[in-house]
Specification:
Oligomer: single chain
Largest sheet: 2 strands, parallel
Distance between the termini: 59 Å
Structural class: mainly alpha
Number of strands: 2
Shape: elongated
Number of helices: 4
Strand order of the largest sheet: 1-2
């Protein structure tokens, strides 16, 4: 299993790699621009993620994992549709498989505690709850 802290670090590295890697490698704009946008998307949904149930954020980590899986599938599909051998196609496929693996191998959120009990007798309020005579 991938620990949450490692997953969060991999999110940051993925965003930077997608945004800068293709340009540094001299890939054409038709590839580097969409990958830059994908990296910006990873950065955005990572910043919006609650990596712990008690942390601030707009989306839960389980929703984040769904986005990782969807992105991984999209990258694999893009690689398959590219046709022909080449480093760009292999890179897209590798990143897609990496995203799918990260989504599958990182444990989701533990159940959030609401403070409510389930089952068992009701608790009595502090002080016993009943008047003593």
């Amino acid at each position: 299993m991938i620990p949450l802290a490692l997953h969060a670090a991999l999110d940051g590295l993925s965003a930077v790699a997608l945004m800068a890697g293709p340009r540094l490698l001299g890939w054409p704009r038709r590839l580097s621009e969409p990958l830059f946008l994908a990296g910006a998307g990873v950065a955005a949904y990572s910043l919006a993620t609650r990596y712990r149930p008690d942390a601030p954020g707009l989306i839960s980590f389980d929703e984040h994992r769904m986005l990782d899986a969807a992105q991984g599938a999209a990258f694999c599909l893009a690689a398959a549709r590219m046709g022909g051998p080449g480093p760009a196609r292999r890179s897209l496929a590798a990143y897609g498989l990496f995203s799918l693996a990260a989504a599958a191998l990182t444990q989701g959120e533990p159940p959030h505690r609401t403070g409510r009990r389930t089952g068992g007798p009701p608790r009595t309020p502090a002080g016993g709850g009943a008047h003593r005579r």
